[in-house]
Amino acid sequence: MSSFRFQKYGDIAAVRGFVKGDTVFLYKPEDIETVFRNEGTWPERISFKSIEYYQANVRKDIYDDLYSLVASNGKDWHKMRSIANPILNQIRSVEMYIPEIDCVSQDFIKRIRFLLDNKEEGMMPESFLNELNKWSLESVSFLGLDKRLGCLDNNLDSDSEVQKIIDAVHKSLEYMYKLEFELSLLQYINIKNRDEFVKHFDVIKNAFSKHIQEAKIRYENSSSESNKSMLQRFLSVNEKVANVLALDLLAAGVDTTGKSGGAILYFLASHKRAQNELRKELVTLLPNKDSPFTKETLANAKYLKASIKEGLRMGGIAAANFRTATKDMVVGGYQIPKGTLIHLCAYQNLFSEQQFPRPREFIPERWLRTNTSETSHKNTHPFVYLPFGFGARSCIGQRLATMELELLIARIIRNFELEWPHPPAKFTAKLFYEIVDPLRFKVKETPE
Fold first, then answer.
1. What pLDDT shows up at residue 224?
2. Pair 204, 165: CB distance under 8 Å
3. Distance between CA atoms of residues 178 and 329, nearest Å
């Protein structure tokens, strides 16, 4: 629909709305920059009423006057962001987790080998995205709960706590989309969807609350004060903060990171030249398949970082950023009144020949500093590629998500050759921009 508007109306379009209010769609990078540069101290964006309802009405006893970063605006958002920033968004806070998250990635390699032993011709199962979600849940649970849940155990069944959490994340996102973007004129359908959302979100909340209580007891019985975990630092504020921020990490970090990892692997599998170039770098940095990752190793993995950036350009989950105008402004020669919803559309620019020469080609070299050709990202408008948003309201977990993806992709490409023996994958855009096809990679062990 966004592409249709761009083709029909050009760089700016407006839609009258009776549900979400009037909406403006911006496609020109200079106009997108204007909005971001004028968003003020407390930037506002479209709020998710489903989460607001859950926190303010259904579980007010837990949240009280604290609100999710995803669902809040103004002072409520600023209050939580001020607490979360020094814990989640500092480089030092992320680097301390490299060894542990690398262990999760290495366990995922073992999981792939187990799947290889149980599949013919090296093909991953149709449910491989679910395997990636297990990896992302295992990573984010260690970050947010200071505990591994055993998501990569080969003996997990469909009724395990882990699978119930993953299913609940998918279902809550499904019903959130219906509530936010497919509102029905029939009130009973909206109430049914709302109740389903609450039911599935409760599964996530109850699981995390239980593990936070267990962690709290562990900390009370421990005398160690060095290298406090993220959860310990959340709890040092208070238990409500710990519940809100840990739940934010899970709700925003499982499905999104799993899908992003799958997309990056797809582009590497279908572009063997780039995959081989990445493996060459990784063999140098990791002489053995199980050589340890350090912050120095990651810092030197230039082609790895470039591959992930290119994968997020072509297959990142965010096809747009969103803002609500906090004041009257003029953009592209048009008056946009305060309170207007603004879609800052990324997709068309990410595949624009003007911004990215040969835009449909997977070229990690675009992002290397040494690249001086026309494909260099230095020739691209700086407000085109924003996979984690911009400014004060950029994704609070972007450093964590990037580190998780770097370790995952590096371990997989160092250990396996990937192929995509299928027609090009199809993508769709609903709540996220994502691959529709099952991630049936053909996988072959690399030489030592």
1. 63
2. yes
3. 31
Q: Are 307 and 264 in contact (CB under 8 A)?
A: yes
Helix (H) or strand (E) holding 429: strand 427-429
* Threshold 0.85, pTM exceeds: yes
CB 389 within 8 A of CB 43: no
Contact status, residue 343 vs residue 23, Cβ threshold 8 Å: yes
Residue type, 405: L
Q: Given CA atoms 109, 110, 111, 113 in this order, what sign does their dihedral have?
A: positive
Q: Which residues pair with 324 in a beta bridge?
A: 44, 341
| Measured distance CA(259)–CA(210) in Å, rounded | 27
| 3-state SS, residue 44 | strand
- 362 pLDDT above the threshold of 80: yes
Burial 82-107 (b: 16+ CB within 10 A, else e): ebbeebbbeeebbeebbeebbbbbbb
Contacts 24+ apart (CB under 8 A), 75-83: 75/42, 77/42, 77/393, 78/41, 78/42, 80/241, 80/244, 80/245, 81/392, 81/396, 83/237, 83/241, 83/245
Domains and their CATH numbers in the chain: 1-38+317-386 (3.30.43.20), 39-62+74-316+387-445 (1.10.630.10)
> Could you tell me which residues are beta bridge partners of residue 341?
23, 324
Alpha helices in 182-254 (DSSP H): 187-220, 230-237, 239-253
pLDDT at position 363 over 80: yes
For residue 125, the 8-state DSSP code is P
Model pLDDT for residues 166-203, shown as the tens digit of each residue: 999 999 999 998 888 876 666 667 889 999 999 999 99
DSSP 55-115: IIIISHHHHTT---TTT--HHHHHHHHHHHHHHHS-HHHHHTTHHHHHHHHHHHHHHHHHH
217 alpha carbon, distance to own chain's centre: 31
The greatest distance separating any two alpha carbons of the chain, rounded to the nearest whole angstrom, comes to 65
Provide the 3-class DSSP secondary structure of residue 317.
coil
Helix, strand, or coil (residue 352): coil
Q: Side chain identity at 37, as an amino acid letter?
A: R
Binding residues for heme: 395
| Token duo for residue 177 | 């989309």
Annotated binding site: 395
